[in-house]
């Protein structure tokens, strides 16, 4: 079954998080990635039922995940349960763990990992064309990547979640910048895992590829 990866990139936060998925997650997944203009409701609705894992970047609120230019992707009470039933779901989106995450579990998702509050990190705008090279953003985003790669190595949802939390704590212990340290601790403390903690997906092979070419799509201002 394919992995659905939602990667909007219309502003700096979405491009930053999506850039790390492009670099470290996409090389290990089947060709069903929704990037940039394709991160909209219809492409997601058509592709999601065939997947076993959904990984989504996007702005959001307690009850909604949005994609490119804030097009609604998932909203409480406004999606077909077939889109999420049996899936392992990870959303890199603010506040998705408050109402949307529990609703996804109620609709049949196997597990959900997200955040009860905003997901926050510091980014280098000068690296907008190569977001995966942003070492400042990496301090908060690589724990997420490590957890996702653990999932795709065959680890359980609980084991992958623990790896993400450990990454925040490890980075916070050695971080000298107080703002970045506070972001790490904030994300760790607001992360949430719901549903079947023993849920797994089919393992994917580890593949090492060079970084993707620079991104030159315009960002929203």
Task: Throw out a few tags for this protein.
221 residues; 9 strands; 6-stranded mixed sheet; 3-stranded antiparallel sheet; alpha/beta; globular
What do you see in this structure?
This protein has 221 residues and is an alpha/beta fold. Helices cover 34% and strands 17% of the residues. It has six helices and nine strands. The chain has helices spanning 12-24, 41-47, 100-106, 135-152, 157-174, 178-190; strands at residues 3-7, 33-35, 53-57, 60-61, 64-66, 72-75, 88-92, 111-115, 191-195. A six-stranded mixed beta sheet has the order 2-1-3-7-8-9, with helices on both faces. Strands 4-5-6 form a three-stranded antiparallel beta sheet. α1 packs across α4 (135-152), α4 (135-152) runs antiparallel to α5 and α5 runs antiparallel to α6.
In short:
This protein has helices at residues 12-24, 41-47, 100-106, 135-152, 157-174, 178-190; strands spanning 3-7, 33-35, 53-57, 60-61, 64-66, 72-75, 88-92, 111-115, 191-195. By secondary structure, the protein is an alpha/beta fold.
Distance between the termini: 37 Å
Give start-end ranges of low-pLDDT stretches: none
Structural class: alpha/beta
Mean pLDDT: 94
DSSP strand count = 9
Beta-strand residue fraction: 15-25%
Backbone CA Rg? 16 Å
Largest beta sheet, briefly?
6 strands, mixed
Shape descriptor reads: globular
**H/E series, N to C?**
EHEHEEEEEHEHHHE
Helix content: 25-40%
Question: Helix segment count?
Answer: 6
Task: Please state how the strands of the largest beta sheet are arranged side by side.
Answer: 2-1-3-7-8-9
């Amino acid at each position: 079954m394919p992995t659905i990866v939602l990667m909007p990139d219309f502003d700096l936060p979405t491009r930053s998080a999506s850039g790390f998925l492009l670099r470290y997650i996409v090389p290990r997944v089947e060709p069903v990635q929704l990037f940039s203009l394709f991160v909209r409701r219809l492409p997601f609705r058509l592709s999601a039922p065939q997947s076993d894992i959904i990984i989504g970047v996007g702005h959001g609120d307690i009850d909604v995940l949005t994609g490119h230019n804030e097009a609604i992707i998932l909203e409480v009470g406004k999606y077909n349960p077939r889109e999420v039933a049996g899936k392992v779901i990870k959303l890199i989106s603010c506040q998705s763990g408050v109402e949307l995450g529990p609703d996804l579990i109620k609709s049949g998702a196997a597990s959900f990992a997200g955040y009860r509050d905003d997901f926050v990190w510091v980014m280098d705008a000068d690296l907008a064309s190569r977001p995966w090279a942003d070492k400042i953003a990496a301090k908060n985003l690589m724990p997420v990547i490590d957890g996702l790669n653990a999932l795709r190595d065959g680890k359980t949802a609980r084991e992958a979640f623990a790896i993400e939390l450990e990454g925040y704590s490890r980075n916070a212990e050695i971080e000298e910048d107080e703002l970045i340290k506070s972001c790490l601790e904030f994300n760790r403390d607001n992360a949430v895992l719901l549903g079947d903690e023993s849920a797994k997906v089919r393992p994917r092979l580890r593949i090492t590829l060079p970084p993707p070419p620079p991104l030159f799509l315009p960002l929203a201002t």
